[in-house]
Amino acid sequence: MDRIDVALLGLGTVGTGVYKMLQSNQDVIARRTGLLFEVKHILVRDPNKKRKVDGVKNLLTTRFEEIMATGVDVVMEAMGGVEPARTYIERAIRSRCHVVTANKELIAKHGAELEKLAQEHGVQLLYEASVGGGIPVLGTLQHFLKANRILRVSGILNGTTNFILTQMGEHQRSFEEVLAEAQRLGYAEADPTADVEGFDAAHKLTILSRLAFGAVVPVDEIARRGITDISPAELELAHRLGYRIKLLAKAEQFGEEGPVALQVGPTLVPLSHPLSGINGVYNAIHIEADTVQDVTLVGQGAGEQPTASAMVEDLCNLFRLPLPRPLSYRRPLVLPVWEEGGARFAFIETKDRLGSDISQQVKERLKRFGTSAVDVAWLPGDERSALALILRRWDPSLQEKLTEELELEAERVVFRPLLGTPEPVGAEREAKISSAQ
Amino acid sequence: MDRIDVALLGLGTVGTGVYKMLQSNQDVIARRTGLLFEVKHILVRDPNKKRKVDGVKNLLTTRFEEIMATGVDVVMEAMGGVEPARTYIERAIRSRCHVVTANKELIAKHGAELEKLAQEHGVQLLYEASVGGGIPVLGTLQHFLKANRILRVSGILNGTTNFILTQMGEHQRSFEEVLAEAQRLGYAEADPTADVEGFDAAHKLTILSRLAFGAVVPVDEIARRGITDISPAELELAHRLGYRIKLLAKAEQFGEEGPVALQVGPTLVPLSHPLSGINGVYNAIHIEADTVQDVTLVGQGAGEQPTASAMVEDLCNLFRLPLPRPLSYRRPLVLPVWEEGGARFAFIETKDRLGSDISQQVKERLKRFGTSAVDVAWLPGDERSALALILRRWDPSLQEKLTEELELEAERVVFRPLLGTPEPVGAEREAKISSAQ
């Protein structure tokens, strides 16, 4: 049986998980791959720190050079952050080591150039764990959707924000309150910016769009909005209208090698859509393609074990699955997204007292102004009332004039995109059905 | 660019889909695989029948020998049924052709021996399309869960029955009525036995258990029940208790190389479980494993395009992914399942008029007899009332004595298994929470 020498960079949550899995599942791995993986070195910052695994003392080192000097077959990077991970990975590739990493920020920012470098040196760089934790979404795109034209990839890619939105919706709690709880539970960082402002999801979307469309889009060109301005009332009204609000990351390509549109932001997902029921810390990716139609993958998007699993599966595949075909990445035209027409959800907080006839009033007033509302819901509230509409067509001027048209004194108005086209409701639906018959 | 000669057996729905995809997506496939696939022959029964695709006239033949005589690289079988598909595939393998098939019945019954034959002849036999249509579940088990110990695979594997149950539940319609509609829509066969009695799902479960556990279990050893005795009232009461009834196929392994339990039958899936929201003709597979925790794959389980997609993706992978490791299939001990203890859903139709205190009465009576109900729901009904219970522990004697204990004159009693352990509800839940604090 061939022995493969592995160096592990980092022994935090994910690194510990990888080490433990390589011990506990060694027999399964050997039987199914014919390979024996042995961790020879573990790079850490502090060799004296107490560790959660036994028997690693003699493997620890603080010097990356030492690892390269003795020579290993594979470097598994579980440190996170761009530097020094990038420098180490580059040096490993130049020394003809395969590399497995879970580092989404690094792969989002420098993945294309690192893959090119790996190809030049005849080694592989795999990073399944960087998107969706244990969900094999990158492998699915690369190996099981090669003969399909991928049209759109939509995902719930951040478990922290999905946990927060789920809790807010189920228990009518404020963003601030649930964030504090998530921090206590260890689901959110002390500085939650990367999660709640959508940066983490944007990194992952960059990686997905590269594998789905060959499109290299810098993270800062992704239209991005966070979840900090969402209230339980907004979630409640969206639900009454038949939607869940999710922090959705969406990449679309318009025609083969055509322009792309990428966005991360709170989005209304219809209750009938597979992504609407993804709750808590789960992640999911919905892939639309020309022949398979749609495939959705669901799983745990973070955590020691699922992330370690994805890294160790990559490790096994380095020696089983072929090198990818020469890469043909491109820098596509990136279309603006927030300005696009199409349907919108509008959420309005107002000090006006809303009567029970508000729904009919709103529909009539909007019609007079040439805009039509598909559906309306409202909450009376004690100090502030809330009103929500599904607008069939949106144009940027509505940003200014919607509340004027509705003759409401608005405290706050937000617009959110919808995934897909709104279903007709009520009388409109009946009209459509009878005309179809 | 290498050219690969393909013979297609069958030009029905799936065969037509394969032919169309190979034409329409030839450019994508060539770019991503470096291969040009060309259909050289199509085996049909009637060469004069009108076809849904153009340009195939010169490719049609009724003689399999003719195809073998000219020599092709790959045979794609889309005929269905055991014979003559089995004979053709064996001969193709012996002539050193790779084989791709969508034939679940054949692979369920003879897959292990055909794979062995293929291995002896240095060719591959791939059959992703045989389970879950376009969902890449077999590929995921083989390539992305090698380093994991798989514990349990649960799936909604039959689109016809899932469509029927969804329609019955959403619109309170009877089984017979919805079946007739499914037949009109082409979702169900004129003879619906294979679908509604669970044979189709059992075939697919056999294939899943072979790939997940290396366990070869003959289809007739799978505990199997159909959906013909389910009423809208039963679906309604299950929903009130927090569940959806699904025709679930479940395979579990107890310990590495240990015994297995396989069952297909109506099962209560908690609303919080990813499989509970899979509706209509969608299929889904939930995989539990020791390190990745759980992964769910969702997609269209049948139809021309999704099934063709899975076959063409297999076709591409023949030349890209490595031959599997020498197979080590085994005939495991198969445990009985319906007799097992554990929780049950009981649904009772009675001519007794149920009072509003029935819930409390039931709980008390059951307690007296040493059986506890977690939760109770009931419907008054016009002629017959219906009562449903979640029983924490079940033993076979309850089959006889449950209604006697409840002092009800039962017209009909059915018991169904639950996926997972029932959540405590009401006072019991509060007691559990307060004792945990």
Automatic annotation (TrEMBL), chains A, B:
GO molecular function, one term: NADP binding
Reactions mediated catalytically: L-homoserine + NADP(+) = L-aspartate 4-semialdehyde + NADPH + H(+)
Keyword Amino-acid biosynthesis: yes
Involved pathway(s): Amino-acid biosynthesis; L-methionine biosynthesis via de novo pathway; L-homoserine from L-aspartate: step 3/3; Amino-acid biosynthesis; L-threonine biosynthesis; L-threonine from L-aspartate: step 3/5
EC number, UniProt record: 1.1.1.3
Gene3D superfamilies, sorted: Dihydrodipicolinate Reductase, domain 2, NAD(P)-binding Rossmann-like Domain
Matching InterPro entries: Asp/hSer_DH_NAD-bd, HDH_cat, HDH_CS, NAD(P)-bd_dom_sf
Pfam families assigned to the protein according to its UniProt record, in alphabetical order: Homoserine_dh, NAD_binding_3
Keywords: Amino-acid biosynthesis, Methionine biosynthesis, NADP, Oxidoreductase, Sodium, Threonine biosynthesis
Ranges where the Aspartate/homoserine dehydrogenase NAD-binding domain occurs: 10-128
Homoserine dehydrogenase catalytic domain span: 136-315
TM annotation in the entry: none
GO biological process: methionine biosynthetic process; threonine biosynthetic process
Keyword Transmembrane helix: no
SUPFAM superfamilies, A to Z: Glyceraldehyde-3-phosphate dehydrogenase-like, C-terminal domain, NAD(P)-binding Rossmann-fold domains
Family per similarity comment: Belongs to the homoserine dehydrogenase family.
NCBIfam families membership: PRK06349.1
PANTHER family: HOMOSERINE DEHYDROGENASE
Name this polypeptide is given: Homoserine dehydrogenase
